[in-house]
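Take a minute with the sequence and fold tokens given here and flag any structure token that looks odd. Thanks in advance.
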Amino acid sequence: MDIGVVIKKYRKEAGMTQEEMANRLGVTTPAVNKWENSNSNGTGCSR
């Protein structure tokens, strides 16, 4: 299973928007979007 699918699944189960998740994690909303769409691996390095 792709990590982006897992992130989105648990975010939705928690009833959070991407913006709410970003605020809780101290990152930007576009960062969460990138993670969920597998455009970034979350380390600051592109795949």
